[in-house]
Amino acid sequence: xxxxxxxxxxxxxxxxxxxxxxxxxxxxxxxxxxxxxxxxxxxxxxxxxxxxxxxxxxxxxxxxxxxxxxxxxxxxxxxxxxxxxxxxxxxxxxxxxxxxxxxxxxxxxxxxxxxxxxxxxxxxxxxxxxxxxxxxxxxxxxxxxxxxxxxxxxxxxxxxxxxxxxxxxxxxxxxxxxxxxxxxxxxxxxxxxxxxxxxxxxxxxxxxxxxxxxxxxxxxxxxxxxxxxxxxxxxxxxxxxxxxxxxxxxxxxxxxxxxxxxxxxxxxxxxxxxxxxxxxxxxxxxxxxxxxxxxxxxxxxxxxxxxxxxxxxxxxxxxxxxxxxxxxxxxxxxxxxxxxxxxxxxxxxxxxxxxxxxxxxxxxxxxxxxxxxxxxxxxxxxxxxxxxxxxxxxxxxxxxxxxxxxxxxxxxxxxxxxxxxxxxxxxxxxxxxxxxxxxxxxxxxxxxxxxxxxxxxxxxxxxxxxxxxxxxxxxxxxxxxxxxxxxxxxxxxxxxxxxxxxxxxxxxxxxxxxxxxxxxxxxxxxxxxxxxxxxxxxxx
Amino acid sequence: xxxxxxxxxxxxxxxxxxxxxxxxxxxxxxxxxxxxxxxxxxxxxxxxxxxxxxxxxxxxxxxxxxxxxxxxxxxxxxxxxxxxxxxxxxxxxxxxxxxxxxxxxxxxxxxxxxxxxxxxxxxxxxxxxxxxxxxxxxxxxxxxxxxxxxxxxxxxxxxxxxxxxxxxxxxxxxxxxxxxxxxxxxxxxxxxxxxxxxxxxxxxxxxxxxxxxxxxxxxxxxxxxxxxxxxxxxxxxxxxxxxxxxxxxxxxxxxxxxxxxxxxxxxxxxxxxxxxxxxxxxxxxxxxxxxxxxxxxxxxxxxxxxxxxxxxxxxxxxxxxxxxxxxxxxxxxxxxxxxxxxxxxxxxxxxxxxxxxxxxxxxxxxxxxxxxxxxxxxxxxxxxxxxx
Lengths: 540, 388
Hints:
The complex is a heterodimer.
Chain A: H1 2-19, H2 24-37, H3 43-55, H4 61-70, E1 73-76, E2 82-86, E3 89-92, E4 107-109, H5 114-129, H6 134-146, H7 153-162, H8 166-181, H9 186-196, H10 202-213, H11 217-222, H12 224-273, H13 281-298, H14 303-328, H15 337-359, E5 375-379, E6 382-385, H16 386-408, H17 410-420, H18 422-427, H19 432-455, H20 466-479, H21 484-505, H22 507-524, H23 535-539
Antiparallel strand pairs in A: 1-2, 1-4, 2-3, 5-6
Chain B: H1 3-15, H2 18-40, H3 51-77, H4 84-103, H5 116-120, H6 136-160, H7 165-184, E1 196-197, E2 201-202, E3 205-206, H8 210-236, H9 238-248, H10 250-255, H11 260-286, E4 288-289, H12 296-309, H13 314-334, H14 336-353, H15 361-387
Antiparallel strand pairs in B: 1-4, 2-3
Helix pairs in contact in B: 2-8, 3-8, 3-9, 3-11, 3-12, 3-13, 4-6, 4-11, 6-11, 8-9, 8-11, 9-11, 12-13, 13-14
């Protein structure tokens, strides 16, 4: 009986979609009428009504059917207005206007049972695949691919015949292939194998695997062409997937490298250029992350904007703290690196405890704007997250800006002059004390910017900085002190190395391996990958 | 060696060390008085010292020995190790493994061969590196060898390729960090996150009894005394002078023909072994060893003990360790929030204004006065010069 109904509705649906626009106005009226009938109908009638609704050519059909499926379709008791209720938002199902329903009891849900739900799902799939919007059809096709076992071949064939978009067509023909693969007819199976060849969708791989394992010893001989074709395309798919896995690993590695780079750039200035061991560097990152948190609290409705505002804010906060540290403590300790290390470590403890006292020791939640969440798909086997891409780009931008500041600005020139030859710079009229303070502030400020980025990736807590301090030092030392380019190469290679070891050895062991590697590397080349040559070495 | 043979160098060692003599006398007095007060006087007596206090003091003494070890390399040879906690923890783990084996079948799972956590992880047999730890002598050997070998390999590589100064500090920190991560892994077979604990007895004596605690306390005092004497012997010997020369001008010492790396390696290994012994005495007194001991911050804290006490004076290291740790016990109990502020402040203040630590404070004040006196005398002289 149900099958029969379905066919009728399908026919209806096709009829309606073919007759097109002319009937649209009429459909709108029908939609209202049919939907209103849902209120009084029993479940069997509701199934019929739903079918009739699905057959209408109106863009409001899909939301109404989905709402019915999700149990979000209500009606108002007094005037029998149909409502769609999503959380606290109550809207008229047809006009979309907000409706004021004073009491909880003034509206009533339009009930659904399991049989109706099943019916609704297939109706929705049908309506979607016939939708006028390409994106909806694409989603629908992907859905069919996921549930290809329950899809009828006729539906796919019809959709394929009408389809104009090649993206949707590709997926639909895969669905067709998946269905045909189960066919009894050998010719159809071979067509299926041709259709499926080279596709990276996990569903295709799974059913090919299933298909191959279904062969008995004897069948392998009798159905040789099929078997070889299937194994061959599976093997080629597998290699492709594996390659994509490598690319994904590389991507993760680069993203980790970008995080390391961000954390280490500031240190490359304070440690690399000035030679100051700043153990409070991690706390500058933490301050940046907390600045992001505070800015977000100040403008809770604009997550994206707050993130943009946070970048200069974090730079200023961390930079100011950096200048204060330099003027207050480090200034007195130049030339005594070990003492500097201890004093800045003390500062890091104080900053941590200060944050703990002000913001509580618990982690703080920093919201992620929509455009950073989610993934983008390069191909079905390779889905990459947006936030990592942004981090990579951001870190490179920061590095480039810093390089520009160092190379092209007066401040950068003075800074380099002071690090090369302090007395000479001083005698040329450069206020070396101020340059020191500003340089340290710059390094700290960049650490603060790193904190903004990290707030999007990890928990913002008082110990945030501690997690990165050792890594940052490793990057700077590995890359070669006083060399931004070295820092970039070191950060990226350490990030990628970490992610390459990870699947083989596990996350922790990978980290240990990388640490041991650096320890050994420093033995071999104590000045890092790109060591400064000449006089500067002797002063280090 | 009999005691008489030892008298010669020992008296010579102590003749020129007035503070050292005082320190040793205090230590000996502690070793006698505290166990006596703990064991002889009844609980409610005024003179009774609780087992808790005694164990706490014992813990401080272990820290003191650790501070001596760090001062030996940092104060006298300029090697700032930010990973000495690792040697301490390794010694502790060696002891912990012995104590673990001593539990026998009294564990929760009642397995005579395997410690509880291995039964829990479904391990069938003892890993090879656990063999021998049921023997006390072997465990004690490992207390010395495990940190010693690590220090030897690490130091050999580092000193040979002339990794010095802050670079060395950073890679020692990386070393202890790597070990921290490693010991956190359950697969390592050292109890993972929880470490080794639930110890029952040592050499057949219950760890809960006051007598054992007193014996451990006395052992800690002895360890500090012996550690002090060894270090003192090293720094007053000719080798010690070379070490100081390396500290002050490494390349000059090298140009004079000293094999700098071997001197450094020797003192680094000795120091690591002292740290290992400190760890081994620490574990039975606190009753647990876990990977947290490898945390880089612990190693850095040792540095501050030495810095507060007075870098480059062995008895100063002892004083610093006890002072800072007493302050830590007091403040974490009374004002937990304030402790990190205090500790951080200590770091900043000592490095800025107390380069010689507490023990150098007096000399520092005196020096200031002299400078002021000399300054005013000079000012007077120049004033007179102007008049005439």
